[in-house]
Amino acid sequence: MIRAIELNKISFSYKENQRLFKDLSLTVYDGEITVISGSNGSGKTTLGKLMMGIIKPEEGSITLFGKESSKMNLGQRGQQIGYLFQDPARQLFASTVYKELSFILELKGYDETMIQEQVSKMLDIFQIGYLKDMCPFYLSGGEKQRLALAAVLINQPKYLILDEPTTSLDPKRKQILSDILKQYREEGKGIMLITHDEPFALEHGQRVIEIEGGMITYDSKFEA
Ligand SMILES: Nc1ncnc2c1ncn2[C@@H]1O[C@H](COP(=O)(O)OP(=O)(O)O)[C@@H](O)[C@H]1O
Ligand SMILES: [Mg+2]
Protein backbone atom coordinates (compact mmCIF):
# COMPACT_ATOMS: atom_id res chain seq x y z
CA MET A 1 0.00 0.00 0.00
CA ILE A 2 1.13 3.54 -0.75
CA ARG A 3 2.08 5.64 2.25
CA ALA A 4 0.01 8.80 2.04
CA ILE A 5 1.17 10.61 5.16
CA GLU A 6 4.01 9.61 7.40
CA LEU A 7 4.76 11.20 10.76
CA ASN A 8 8.23 10.34 11.93
CA LYS A 9 8.91 10.87 15.65
CA ILE A 10 7.25 14.23 15.83
CA SER A 11 6.99 16.38 18.94
CA PHE A 12 4.69 19.33 19.32
CA SER A 13 3.46 21.68 22.04
CA TYR A 14 1.29 24.79 21.98
CA LYS A 15 2.74 26.04 25.24
CA GLU A 16 6.11 25.61 26.82
CA ASN A 17 6.29 22.70 29.24
CA GLN A 18 3.00 21.32 27.96
CA ARG A 19 3.95 18.80 25.35
CA LEU A 20 1.00 17.45 23.41
CA PHE A 21 2.92 14.98 21.20
CA LYS A 22 6.27 13.42 21.93
CA ASP A 23 8.07 11.13 19.45
CA LEU A 24 4.81 10.26 17.72
CA SER A 25 5.10 8.08 14.65
CA LEU A 26 2.14 7.22 12.46
CA THR A 27 1.60 6.29 8.84
CA VAL A 28 -1.73 6.48 7.04
CA TYR A 29 -2.18 4.80 3.69
CA ASP A 30 -3.76 5.55 0.39
CA GLY A 31 -6.83 3.54 -0.58
CA GLU A 32 -8.31 3.18 2.87
CA ILE A 33 -10.31 5.19 5.37
CA THR A 34 -8.51 5.73 8.65
CA VAL A 35 -10.73 6.89 11.49
CA ILE A 36 -9.17 8.98 14.24
CA SER A 37 -11.17 8.92 17.44
CA GLY A 38 -10.50 10.01 21.00
CA SER A 39 -12.04 12.28 23.59
CA ASN A 40 -12.20 16.07 23.38
CA GLY A 41 -8.81 17.69 23.71
CA SER A 42 -6.89 14.49 22.95
CA GLY A 43 -5.11 16.09 20.00
CA LYS A 44 -7.08 14.92 16.94
CA THR A 45 -7.41 18.34 15.32
CA THR A 46 -3.78 19.14 16.10
CA LEU A 47 -2.74 15.91 14.40
CA GLY A 48 -4.63 16.87 11.24
CA LYS A 49 -3.14 20.39 11.25
CA LEU A 50 0.37 18.96 11.61
CA MET A 51 -0.26 16.60 8.70
CA MET A 52 -1.52 19.47 6.56
CA GLY A 53 1.41 21.70 7.54
CA ILE A 54 -0.78 24.40 9.12
CA ILE A 55 1.39 24.03 12.22
CA LYS A 56 4.93 22.66 12.32
CA PRO A 57 6.40 19.99 14.56
CA GLU A 58 9.26 21.02 16.87
CA GLU A 59 11.03 17.76 16.20
CA GLY A 60 10.64 14.98 13.71
CA SER A 61 9.58 14.99 10.07
CA ILE A 62 6.44 14.59 7.99
CA THR A 63 6.28 13.20 4.48
CA LEU A 64 3.37 13.45 2.04
CA PHE A 65 3.42 10.72 -0.61
CA GLY A 66 7.11 10.25 0.07
CA LYS A 67 8.02 13.94 -0.16
CA GLU A 68 9.29 15.96 2.78
CA SER A 69 6.39 18.24 3.76
CA SER A 70 8.64 21.07 5.00
CA LYS A 71 10.07 21.38 1.49
CA MET A 72 6.64 21.96 -0.05
CA ASN A 73 4.60 25.17 -0.03
CA LEU A 74 0.93 25.30 0.97
CA GLY A 75 -0.20 25.10 -2.66
CA GLN A 76 1.87 21.97 -3.25
CA ARG A 77 0.59 20.39 -0.05
CA GLY A 78 -2.96 21.34 -1.03
CA GLN A 79 -2.57 19.49 -4.29
CA GLN A 80 -1.76 16.28 -2.39
CA ILE A 81 -4.00 16.65 0.64
CA GLY A 82 -7.47 18.17 0.88
CA TYR A 83 -8.23 19.40 4.37
CA LEU A 84 -11.63 20.18 5.89
CA PHE A 85 -11.37 22.34 9.02
CA GLN A 86 -13.32 21.32 12.11
CA ASP A 87 -14.91 24.76 11.87
CA PRO A 88 -15.64 24.99 8.13
CA ALA A 89 -16.42 28.72 8.36
CA ARG A 90 -12.67 29.23 8.82
CA GLN A 91 -11.85 28.14 5.32
CA LEU A 92 -14.50 30.15 3.47
CA PHE A 93 -13.24 33.43 2.05
CA ALA A 94 -14.91 34.21 -1.28
CA SER A 95 -17.70 36.77 -1.82
CA THR A 96 -20.12 34.19 -3.26
CA VAL A 97 -20.70 30.47 -3.01
CA TYR A 98 -19.99 30.12 -6.73
CA LYS A 99 -16.63 31.91 -6.41
CA GLU A 100 -15.73 29.80 -3.40
CA LEU A 101 -15.84 26.79 -5.72
CA SER A 102 -14.49 28.35 -8.92
CA PHE A 103 -11.47 29.99 -7.26
CA ILE A 104 -9.12 27.02 -7.26
CA LEU A 105 -10.08 26.01 -10.81
CA GLU A 106 -9.36 29.56 -12.04
CA LEU A 107 -6.02 29.42 -10.24
CA LYS A 108 -5.26 26.23 -12.11
CA GLY A 109 -6.06 27.99 -15.39
CA TYR A 110 -9.05 25.86 -16.44
CA ASP A 111 -11.22 27.30 -19.19
CA GLU A 112 -14.55 28.93 -18.34
CA THR A 113 -16.79 26.13 -19.71
CA MET A 114 -14.91 23.50 -17.73
CA ILE A 115 -15.10 25.62 -14.57
CA GLN A 116 -18.86 26.16 -14.95
CA GLU A 117 -19.37 22.45 -15.51
CA GLN A 118 -17.41 21.37 -12.46
CA VAL A 119 -18.89 24.02 -10.17
CA SER A 120 -22.44 23.09 -11.28
CA LYS A 121 -21.70 19.44 -10.58
CA MET A 122 -20.55 20.23 -7.03
CA LEU A 123 -23.49 22.58 -6.40
CA ASP A 124 -25.81 19.72 -7.43
CA ILE A 125 -24.09 17.00 -5.41
CA PHE A 126 -24.13 19.07 -2.23
CA GLN A 127 -27.57 20.61 -2.91
CA ILE A 128 -26.36 24.18 -2.60
CA GLY A 129 -27.24 25.43 -6.09
CA TYR A 130 -29.92 27.77 -4.71
CA LEU A 131 -27.17 29.52 -2.72
CA LYS A 132 -24.74 30.13 -5.55
CA ASP A 133 -24.92 33.94 -5.48
CA MET A 134 -25.02 34.19 -1.69
CA CYS A 135 -22.12 35.29 0.48
CA PRO A 136 -20.82 32.19 2.34
CA PHE A 137 -20.71 34.19 5.56
CA TYR A 138 -24.54 34.19 5.78
CA LEU A 139 -25.02 30.46 5.24
CA SER A 140 -26.26 28.16 8.01
CA GLY A 141 -23.82 25.80 9.75
CA GLY A 142 -24.86 22.83 7.62
CA GLU A 143 -24.70 24.84 4.40
CA LYS A 144 -21.21 26.09 5.30
CA GLN A 145 -20.09 22.54 5.98
CA ARG A 146 -21.44 21.33 2.62
CA LEU A 147 -19.83 24.26 0.80
CA ALA A 148 -16.47 23.73 2.54
CA LEU A 149 -16.55 20.04 1.62
CA ALA A 150 -17.42 20.86 -1.98
CA ALA A 151 -14.55 23.38 -2.11
CA VAL A 152 -12.11 20.75 -0.84
CA LEU A 153 -13.30 18.05 -3.24
CA ILE A 154 -13.39 20.25 -6.36
CA ASN A 155 -9.59 20.44 -6.21
CA GLN A 156 -9.46 16.62 -6.54
CA PRO A 157 -6.77 16.06 -3.92
CA LYS A 158 -5.07 12.67 -3.70
CA TYR A 159 -5.85 12.25 0.00
CA LEU A 160 -8.48 13.80 2.27
CA ILE A 161 -8.35 14.84 5.91
CA LEU A 162 -11.84 15.57 7.22
CA ASP A 163 -12.10 16.98 10.73
CA GLU A 164 -15.55 16.19 12.17
CA PRO A 165 -17.29 16.46 8.78
CA THR A 166 -20.73 15.32 9.98
CA THR A 167 -21.17 17.80 12.85
CA SER A 168 -23.74 20.04 11.14
CA LEU A 169 -25.21 17.58 8.66
CA ASP A 170 -28.76 16.23 8.86
CA PRO A 171 -29.28 12.48 8.13
CA LYS A 172 -30.05 13.07 4.45
CA ARG A 173 -26.89 15.14 3.91
CA LYS A 174 -24.87 12.67 5.94
CA GLN A 175 -25.97 9.99 3.49
CA ILE A 176 -24.75 12.15 0.60
CA LEU A 177 -21.37 12.46 2.32
CA SER A 178 -21.34 8.69 2.91
CA ASP A 179 -21.87 8.05 -0.79
CA ILE A 180 -19.08 10.47 -1.69
CA LEU A 181 -16.64 8.81 0.71
CA LYS A 182 -17.46 5.39 -0.72
CA GLN A 183 -16.96 6.64 -4.26
CA TYR A 184 -13.68 8.29 -3.27
CA ARG A 185 -12.45 5.04 -1.81
CA GLU A 186 -13.53 3.07 -4.88
CA GLU A 187 -11.29 5.39 -6.88
CA GLY A 188 -8.46 4.07 -4.68
CA LYS A 189 -8.03 7.27 -2.70
CA GLY A 190 -7.52 7.49 1.05
CA ILE A 191 -9.22 9.49 3.75
CA MET A 192 -8.40 10.35 7.32
CA LEU A 193 -11.72 10.77 9.06
CA ILE A 194 -11.55 12.55 12.41
CA THR A 195 -14.89 11.92 14.06
CA HIS A 196 -16.92 11.47 17.20
CA ASP A 197 -19.74 10.01 15.18
CA GLU A 198 -19.43 6.33 16.02
CA PRO A 199 -21.98 4.89 13.56
CA PHE A 200 -20.41 6.95 10.78
CA ALA A 201 -16.93 5.82 11.79
CA LEU A 202 -17.99 2.16 11.89
CA GLU A 203 -19.67 2.41 8.52
CA HIS A 204 -16.57 3.79 6.81
CA GLY A 205 -13.42 2.98 8.73
CA GLN A 206 -11.10 0.21 7.60
CA ARG A 207 -8.69 1.22 10.29
CA VAL A 208 -9.49 2.86 13.61
CA ILE A 209 -6.92 4.77 15.64
CA GLU A 210 -7.63 6.18 19.05
CA ILE A 211 -5.50 8.89 20.61
CA GLU A 212 -5.49 9.93 24.24
CA GLY A 213 -3.18 12.48 25.82
CA GLY A 214 -1.20 12.74 22.59
CA MET A 215 -0.50 9.00 22.39
CA ILE A 216 -1.89 6.27 20.18
CA THR A 217 -3.82 4.00 22.51
CA TYR A 218 -5.51 1.81 19.91
CA ASP A 219 -4.84 0.97 16.27
CA SER A 220 -6.72 -1.79 14.52
CA LYS A 221 -7.77 -2.78 11.01
CA PHE A 222 -11.20 -3.99 9.92
CA GLU A 223 -12.57 -5.36 6.72
CA ALA A 224 -15.36 -3.13 5.48
N1 LIG B 1 -4.33 27.13 19.34
C1 LIG B 1 -4.15 26.52 20.53
N2 LIG B 1 -3.42 27.10 21.51
C2 LIG B 1 -3.22 26.47 22.70
N3 LIG B 1 -3.69 25.25 23.00
C3 LIG B 1 -4.43 24.63 22.07
C4 LIG B 1 -4.70 25.22 20.77
N4 LIG B 1 -5.45 24.36 20.05
C5 LIG B 1 -5.65 23.28 20.83
N5 LIG B 1 -5.05 23.42 22.03
C6 LIG B 1 -5.02 22.42 23.12
O1 LIG B 1 -4.40 21.25 22.64
C7 LIG B 1 -5.09 20.09 23.07
C8 LIG B 1 -5.57 19.27 21.89
O2 LIG B 1 -6.55 20.01 21.17
P1 LIG B 1 -7.22 19.48 19.82
O3 LIG B 1 -6.16 19.00 18.91
O4 LIG B 1 -8.14 20.53 19.34
O5 LIG B 1 -8.06 18.21 20.37
P2 LIG B 1 -9.31 17.44 19.76
O6 LIG B 1 -9.45 17.81 18.34
O7 LIG B 1 -8.98 15.99 19.96
O8 LIG B 1 -10.49 17.84 20.57
C9 LIG B 1 -6.22 20.58 23.98
O9 LIG B 1 -5.76 20.53 25.31
C10 LIG B 1 -6.43 22.00 23.51
O10 LIG B 1 -6.91 22.81 24.56
MG1 LIG C 1 -10.98 18.58 17.22
Give a structural overview.
The chain has 224 residues and is an alpha/beta fold. It has a single domain (33-57, 75-221), classed as Rossmann fold, CATH 3.40.50. 34% of the residues lie in helices and 29% in strands. It contains 7 helices and 10 strands. The protein has helices at residues 44-52, 74-80, 97-107, 112-125, 141-153, 171-186, 198-204, and strands at 3-15, 18-29, 33-37, 59-64, 67-68, 81-84, 159-163, 190-194, 207-212, 215-221. The strands form 2 sheets. It has a 6-stranded mixed sheet, sandwiched between helices. Strands 2-1-4-5 form a 4-stranded antiparallel sheet, with no helix packed on it. Strand 7 (159-163), helix 6 (171-186) and strand 8 (190-194) form a beta-alpha-beta unit. The longest helix is centred in the last third of the chain and has 16 residues, at 171-186. The chain is globular. The two termini are 17 Å apart. The mean pLDDT is 94. Magnesium ion is lined by residues 44-45, 86.
